[in-house]
């Protein structure tokens, strides 16, 4: 390893290489640094139209992901080109360098390179995901931090947490299945069915009492 750099700068670099920029921050930095007119190769090259027309949708999506990341690398190259051009200009004029602007340019370049590195790490995880046990595929999630190791430093701790979480989930799932299997279902009669406006089961209505014969009918029978 080489000699250490300024601690503040090292902190910035380690942070940028561990997590991506937000979408808004990335757009701001890309918009701040347009490509010089005479650097037409400092871009993410597009697929030739003849090839693009003959590849399937999956291949197109894969290339779009890769080209987006390559565009971020190209933008970092733009920033470094501007910084180097500034240094050359100051050197030729034998004047004092504009430190603030140079620091800003190089810091932006580091941020863009760090973002691109995080994207590449995530793509590598997704490539490895089909080859991992399904129980541990959450290791490939984007929220898992990237360090000097692709799946983070505390891998054993994460594996332990994943096993514990899966065990709880499986226990709950088995309990639900067992409960469902032990239930005894019986069809409800028409009187037991719950009306959609009622709060409880519908009650069976009692038949009306028999009508009593009136006095006039009794007298006619006795005659």
TrEMBL record:
Annotated stretches, region: Disordered: 178-223
Name of the protein in its database record: Uncharacterized protein
Source species taxonomy: Eukaryota, Metazoa, Cnidaria, Anthozoa, Octocorallia
């Amino acid at each position: 390893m080489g000699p250490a750099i300024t601690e503040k700068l090292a902190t910035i670099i380690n942070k940028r290489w561990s997590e991506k920029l937000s979408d808004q921050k990335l757009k701001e930095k890309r918009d701040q640094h347009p490509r010089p007119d005479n650097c037409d190769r400092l871009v993410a090259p597009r697929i030739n139209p003849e090839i693009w027309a003959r590849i399937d949708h999956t291949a197109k999506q894969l290339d779009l992901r890769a080209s987006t990341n390559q565009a971020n690398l190209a933008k970092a190259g733009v920033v470094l080109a501007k910084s180097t051009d500034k240094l050359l200009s100051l050197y030729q004029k034998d004047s004092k360098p504009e430190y603030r602007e140079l620091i800003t340019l190089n810091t932006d370049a580091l941020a863009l390179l760090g973002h691109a590195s995080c994207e590449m790490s995530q793509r590598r995880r997704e490539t490895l995901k089909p080859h991992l046990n399904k129980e541990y595929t959450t290791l490939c999630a984007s929220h898992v931090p990237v360090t000097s190791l692709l799946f983070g430093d505390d891998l054993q701790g994460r594996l332990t947490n994943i096993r514990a979480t899966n065990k709880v989930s499986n226990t709950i799932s088995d309990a639900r299945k067992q409960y469902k299997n032990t239930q005894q279902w019986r069809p409800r009669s028409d009187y037991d069915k719950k009306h959609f406006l009622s709060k409880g089961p519908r009650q069976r209505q009692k038949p009306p009492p028999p009508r009593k014969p009136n006095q006039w009918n009794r007298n006619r029978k006795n005659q």
